[in-house]
Structure prediction request, 311 residues.
Amino acid sequence: MISPDYRALIDAEMWAFIERVDGTYPPGVVDMTIAEQRAVYNNMCKVFYQGRPAGVDVHDEDQGGVLCRRYETGTTDTTVIYYHGGGFVVGGLDSHDDVCAELCKRTGFRVISVDYGLAPEVVFPGCFNDAWAAFEAITEFHKGSVIMCGDSAGGNLAAAVTHHARGRIDNRIVGQVLIYPGLGGDHDQGSYVEHANAPHLTTADMAFYMKTRTGGVSPPKGDPRFAPLQDTDFSGLPPSVMVTAECDPLASDGKAYRDAVRVAGGTAKWINVSGMVHGCLRARVMSQKAAGFFDQIVGAVDAVGRREWPY
Prediction:
C-alpha cells in the first residue's frame, strides 16, 4: 500500500510539534539501548512539560505495592485511575504528570496515576499484575465511582483491568476512556496497514515493544490481559470512549473495540481525530486541533463520571 501523504493530512501546527519531538526523541529510537531510550524519552517529556495547574494537591503513595501519584482539587466521590503510555518500556509518573494534573483540575475528579513495572525488567504478565494490584488497592480505599483511563500502552492496561474486574469487584467502574490504545487488533488490516509508517509510531516500533514486553517469547493468544480485543466476552463492560489519532497504526483498535462492545449490547463511542499522530497529547499547547483532542478526552471523562452519555 502507498503511504498516505502526511503533508496533506497533517497541518502546519502539528508538523511543528512533530519536528520538535524529533529533535529530542528521534525516529529509530528503538535501536538504542533501553537505558538510552528512557533517557531521551524523559528528556522529551521535560521539553513538553506544562506544569501543574494551581489548586491541585499531589501526593505519591503506595497502592498494592505499586508506586502511585494522587491528584486532588477537593472532595470527590469519583476516582480516575490512569495508566501512562510508553510501549511498556518507557514512561512513569513524571512523564504524564501534567496530563493527570490537568485532567484532575478540569473535571474535579481525583486522579491516581499508576507506576507499573516496565519491560524488559518486568515482562508480561508482570505489568498487568502491577496494574491490577494497584486497582484493587485503590478501589478498596476509595469507595466511590471509578473511571479507567490511559494512553497507548496505558490504554491497553486500563481496558485489560476493566475486563478482568467483571465478577471480581462490585460494579463501580462507571466508564473507561482509552486514548490511542493498543488493544491487540488485527495487524493485517485497517490503520495497521494504512499507517504502518506514520510519524511517531510505526509498526516496526510496535514489533520492538511487543518483543520487549513478552521477554522475546511469542505473545499469548486469547488472553485479554495481554490484548483486550482477544477477549471472547465483551458483555458487562461500562460505557467506553476511545479517542484515537487518524495518523496512527493503532487507530483501528478504537473502531474494533467500539464494535465489539456494541455487538455485546454495551455502550461505546469511537472518536478518531483527523490530522493527529500518536503521542499528540503533548501537542495540546502547540496545536489547536491537539487541544481539541484533549478536550474530547476531558469531556469523555467528565461525562462518564457524571453518568451522562452525550454521544
Remarks:
- The chain is about 40% helix and 20% strand.
- Residues 260 and 285 are 34 Å apart (CA to CA).
- The longest strand covers residues 268-277.
